[in-house]
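This is your field. Please look over both lines of this record.
***
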Amino acid sequence: MENPDDPLEGGLDIEAKPEGKKLKNAASLSGGEKALTGLAFIFAIQRTKPSALHVFDEIDAHLDPKNRKEVAKLVKRFSQEAQITIVTLHDSVMSAADKLFGVNMDENNISHIVSVNLEEVKGGEKAASHI
């Protein structure tokens, strides 16, 4: 804690020990290590004080393929307890979703939203629809 005398006037000093490395201040971690540390912190809070909704924007952008798969598993597990919305460009994270939404633009520069229910795809039913 930056300001123990007045906790509401300071932030948190977070330290993490990435696999195979020494304990470091979060400011000196790589982008992927910061992302994993931040997610670990958020999901630790989720276990003690649950929230019904989480929205993440490209949390996997700085992760290597192995860690993207691990994050996808973690998100899938926590999605049983809360609604999780993620903006991502990576298939490995998308594969953990129940539903996908995409935006594409036609030749007239008009955007369209496309949705895919992955549960229906896995069941062999028609899944893509335009909203």
In short: The longest helix spans residues 31-48. The first strand starts at residue 15 and ends at 16. The beta strands are 15-16, 24-25, 53-57, 83-87, 99-105, 111-117, 128-130.
